[in-house]
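User: Predict structure, ligand FE(4)-NI(1)-S(5) CLUSTER with Oxygen.
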Amino acid sequence: MGANRKRTVDPAAENLLNCALEEGARTTWDRWEAMQPQCGFGSLGICCRICNMGPCRIDPFGDGPQTGVCGANADTMVARNLARMIASGSSAHSDHGRDVAHTMLMAARGETADFTIRDETKLRALASEYGVQTAGKDVATIAEEVASIAFSEFGQQHGELRFLKRAPEKRQKIWRDQGVAPRGIDREVVQLMHVTHMGVDNDYKSIIKHSIRAALADGWGGSMIATDLSDVLFGSPVPIRSKVNLGVLEENEVNIVVHGHEPTLSEMIVQASRDPELIELAKSKGASGITLAGICCTANEILMRHGIPIAGNFLNQELAILTGVVDAMIVDVQCIMPGLSELTRCYHTKLITTSPKARFPGDVEHIEFHEDRAMEAAKRIIRTAIENFPNRDKSRVRTAGPRMSMGLVAGFTADNAFHFLGGRYRATYRPLNNAIIEGRIRGLAGVVGCNNPNICQDFAHLEMTKELIKNDVLVVETGCAAIACAKAGLLAPEGARFAGRGLQEVCEAVGIPPVLHFGSCVDNSRILVALCNIINEGGLGEDLSDIPVAGAAPEWMSEKAISIGFYVVASGIFTVFGTPHPVLGSKNVTDYICGGIEEDFGARFAFEEDPIKAAHLMIDHINKKRADLKLRPMLYEEAPAEEREEAAVGIK
Ligand code: BF8
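Assistant: Predicted complex:
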């Protein structure tokens, strides 16, 4: 039993891991252990299999070869490998954005009856930003023009992506001066693949600049399009209560878990799961109803728009199956472990793939999703799950255990989150800026990213986040980081008890948690927009690099996380990763991205596995930015007693 102690800090996950041990079921943690020691050349980034003269590898100790057969040295190899991770990460987020734009275009043209425009206000705001004339046009026409423009951003060959203009002037100038302002999303990804082909770009700094352009095409392009168009199509989130963790699966109901990323299908499944006819069908099979829950980012999408509960983050995907009550797990794209099918074969759970881009070999059922027949596919999926309900082995049901579910509040966005700081009806960032300027809130942190079996599940997210809020740093989170902290109760208003006094006062005065759920990983774009709004509000500098803010991905595993890291650093925000990028085989690349890059972009990376030390790197950075802005000392660290009392009264 104790063997699972270091695998997770989540008692519910630990419980299920104990069951896996009893049953001899293999999970990713077992596969990770079997893989030790992992390849040192890969970890350092100094193996190259880009051409067929190789594979080549550099001797990290200096005794053996220091170049590949072509003459590429460690700097070139490391930079190229890193660049290709960024190309992949940027392409994944951006392809998601493309699919949403495509759905919106189909909805606008009446080519699908299943989707419609849910947020006309946001549509009109986007139309105005894109320069689309709206006078005298109906919603469908405006939506068609907006979606067409968004769509064209992918194939654009010249100029700049439109959303770059959201950034402060100073930041735009840095991008132009550095030659990294992305022209078109696909163009930057393709060009990055080209420059990293054998015998093209051999200058590590130049390769990193190309990488940054592709990463910016993700953050300020594909991801931002995914977020904004999803809001238009599915509705902009508003703060909403729900529950999280494996205990949201109901023993007496048909349980359907949606896992992956794109909201187009999961939105349909939400609607279909509420269909009275299907609920009746579930009852006819002996279930008391239908429970829908999510895993990974598609979970965040339907949580923030509909309050659908979350069954867990990345490392919970196999554990959900081990509960024995998941009748169907529906997957689309990204972060879906190939090992899932090995596990579902040992349980009654039906694994159903839905994307033409992502299939499993063998007997895994494929119900392909197409926008023009979306509801039809969603209903078929739910029917399949219902039919599977009677196949459950009741002796293998495991839904009881410690801390199986927790309450949370989600649904914060750049448009709604900080307005709460000024009261529900004051649509301004002034109160947030003032809270920072006055020293109630020290600054902001974005804690994002994955789980990784190389770190005790959720440990780094929780330790880092608690340390930040204890020091009056307001934390915004997305992706699996948000789910990790939700499981521990930090995303409920009661989580404020872990916060420092200044932050606690702000949270209690306006009823927000100290950790704000900002959505899925593409919604990191919401954090960028929130930071732009802070600059526009005034008093905290002229560029994103002036704001007392830091980013972190303490348990990262995905190539998308590297792309995110690079667009965040290139936007001027100091960012800490837990385990290092695979770059340590090149001192030059490591020194540049953790040092010299700051001269070019006003921010850099740090790698720190200890989450408390990492949090203090962030806090030190925030303090430095406060000092540069000449902000007053933190209220409760320096102020005399009477002033503190007055300040505390003032916030009400
Ligand atoms: O895109 S945080 S494990 S689910 S990559 Fe994947 Fe990482 Fe989770 Fe969302 Ni983001």
